[in-house]
Specification:
This protein has about 260 residues and is α+β, with helices and mostly antiparallel strands. The chain has two domains: about 60 residues, Arc Repressor Mutant, subunit A (Orthogonal Bundle); about 170 residues, Chorismate lyase-like (Chorismate lyase). Helix content is about 30%, strand content about 30%. The chain contains seven helices and eleven strands. It has a six-stranded antiparallel beta sheet. Strand 5 and strand 6 form a beta hairpin. Helix 1 packs across helix 3. The longest helix has 16 residues.
């Protein structure tokens, strides 16, 4: 394998290296193939390992690479299509072609950031429904849905004491509410340990955090914090106002 030296350019070295690496991924590697170790890659391109790491991190952020536990850095597959509704009266978990799987539900203190959205005091107990979303056979999102007890007054602890059954019971009661709408924000973040475990990523991997407030006449009925794999999903907005996470190849064909 020959050595590819970087030319003198105005842009940062790692950014120019990222372009060269991206071209190499297209021509020299297959999806799922493990990249050589950092020492060999740095020698191939004639750069310091610190510069190489910056370029690899950028390619991971752009969804070209994936870091996997016990495997290493691999070439990422094409992005999967996952729709996320923005319908004014959408309900928790009612996205088109949804594949949310309830995992658990417990009464836990509400985090301070979510308490502000719910209009509650921090550390007040709420129902926390934990779910995972699967698309094309892989986990693409993990969700924590925070539901105040007042939003599901008919929920029976005896009927569903814990686990997925209780999660489904909370969702069923929540669906009975007359919702007035929702608002949603999207931001880039880093995977926490729990999210990384659910999504088979490393802690600190890039993620898209989609926070949704479900609104009712009495205030905020529930708050969803869904963490999507940034290496798998891309957010796009259509003319209809629908928000979807689209497949990279589809965007290329449309352009």
């Amino acid at each position: 394998m020959g050595t590819t030296q970087l030319e003198s350019v105005q842009e940062p070295k790692y950014w120019h290296l990222k372009t060269l690496l991206s071209e190499a991924l297209d021509s020299d590697f297959a999806v799922g193939e493990v990249l050589p170790n950092e020492r060999d890659l740095a020698a191939r391109f004639g750069v310091a390992r610190a510069t190489l790491r910056q370029a690899l991190e950028q390619l991971e952020l752009e969804g070209r690479l994936q870091r996997r536990r016990g495997v290493g850095t691999t070439v990422a597959p094409p992005r999967v299509k996952v729709a996320v509704t923005t319908a004014p009266h959408g309900r928790p978990g009612s996205d088109p072609d949804e594949a949310w799987q309830p995992l658990d539900c417990a009464m836990d203190p509400v985090p301070a950031s979510v308490a502000v959205l719910l209009g509650m005091e921090a550390d007040e107990p709420v129902h926390v429904v934990r779910r995972i979303r699967v698309a094309h056979g892989q986990a693409v999102a993990a969700e924590l849905l925070y539901v105040p007890a007042g939003s599901v007054p008919e929920l029976s602890a005896i009927e569903a004491p814990s686990g997925p059954v209780r999660a489904r019971s909370v969702l069923r009661e929540l669906h009975r509410l007359d919702l007035d709408g929702q608002d949603r924000s999207v931001e880039l973040g880093s995977a926490r340990a729990d999210d990384a475990r659910e999504l088979d990523r490393l802690p600190g991997a890039p993620v898209l955090v989609v926070t949704t407030r479900y609104l009712a006449a009495a205030g905020t009925a529930a708050v969803s914090v869904a963490t999507y794999r940034a290496d798998t999903c891309r957010l796009t907005f259509g003319d209809s106002g629908a928000l979807e996470i689209s497949h990279e190849e589809q965007e290329r064909k449309a352009s």
